[in-house]
Design goal:
Length: 325
């Protein structure tokens, strides 16, 4: 069942679409504005080869079509990187989803996949896209180059790739039919949450389901566009910009009749990287320092100890009287 606000806005209302083929300074300013106002935007003309995208999508579809016992055999000694079904995290959250979760720096696990070549090419392509977006973000904010991108470029960066498959809702009802009164037509594929990392780069097939929460707390459905990537601010980027950027809450609903496939790259820093507000952000916006300095390892550990929808950033505030932006 869907929890929280049920208010739904028009599709894509207030969602920026940024053409990355524009003049560079224009793109950088549009990215900054989108991160400040919504925390979410789409990018087109992003430079990722369509062959890489199509190959990853088709081979992911092929994987999820396999028998369950074959899919369950894909696992790593390093939990939670594996094939999973319904369970989300370690604290009882669940959704109408099956998934593959990879660490981008774990080639041994990826070597177990029949489509490892497609995965490797895709990871490199979206890593480069995330790097470019973070470079443009730094330019737009007027902070030194590589301020953000260096954190995901390190050989020990803690970035992950998640491939989510949301089958039609009736496949999860355990024999119930859509006419049964006990079955809600609105099913949560992946519950409301923010992403804890720096930045997320996501792409889906032509089936909708993604919704983001706007500044008024209303849900905005995102139209599926296989030619675009969706980008959202993560918790760490909100901290580094001292609350100037918004780590947006979002969720995915399962379709009644169609399968949705989404692939998300979560750009994370090394575990021991120190995260805190940039001095330029504290001074520039004339605000007190809103967040403590912490390591990604500390924040990640705390994230895994909470439920999906819990607000994590509150625990690292220095100014307790202020609400999150």
């Amino acid at each position: 069942m869907v929890k929280g606000s049920q208010k739904i806005m028009a599709v894509d209302q207030g969602i920026p679409i940024i053409d990355m083929s524009q003049e560079r300074s224009r793109v950088s300013m549009q990215i900054v504005k989108a991160c400040e106002t919504v925390g979410f935007f789409k990018v087109v003309n992003h430079g990722v080869d369509q062959t890489i995208i199509s190959r990853m999508e088709q081979q992911s579809i092929n994987f999820f079509a396999k028998p369950v016992h074959e899919k369950k055999s894909v696992k790593s000694a390093n939990q939670p990187f594996r094939y999973g079904f319904k369970d989300i995290g370690l604290n009882g959250d669940s959704g109408e989803v099956e998934y593959l979760l990879f660490h981008t720096n774990d080639p041994d696990f990826r070597s177990k996949l029949s489509f490892r070549s497609a995965v490797n090419c895709y990871i490199e392509a979206v890593r480069q896209l995330a790097h470019e977006i973070l470079e443009l973000t730094a330019e737009g904010l007027g902070v030194p180059p590589h301020t953000f991108s260096r954190l995901i470029s390190s050989v020990d960066s803690d970035s992950i790739l998640r491939v989510n498959h949301y089958p039609p809702s009736d496949q999860f009802f355990g024999g119930a039919t859509l006419s049964d009164k006990s079955v809600s037509l609105t099913r949560v594929g992946f519950g409301e949450h923010t992403d804890p990392q720096i930045l997320t780069v996501l792409r889906s097939n032509s089936v909708g389901g993604l919704q983001v929460s706007n500044p008024d707390g209303m849900w905005v459905p995102i139209s599926p566009d296989p030619s675009a990537f969706c980008v959202n601010v993560g918790d760490l980027l909100q901290v580094m910009t001292n609350g100037r950027f918004i780590s947006v809450r979002h969720r995915a609903l399962a379709s009644e009749k169609e399968s949705r496939l989404s692939t998300a790259y979560f750009a994370g820093p090394p575990l021991q990287a120190k995260i805190g507000p940039l001095q330029a952000m504290v001074t520039t916006v004339n605000l007190p320092r809103l967040y403590q300095t912490f390591t990604w390892s500390e924040y990640k550990k705390m994230t895994y100890s909470l439920r999906l929808e819990d607000s994590r950033l509150d625990m690292f505030r220095t100014c307790k009287g202020l609400d999150d932006p």
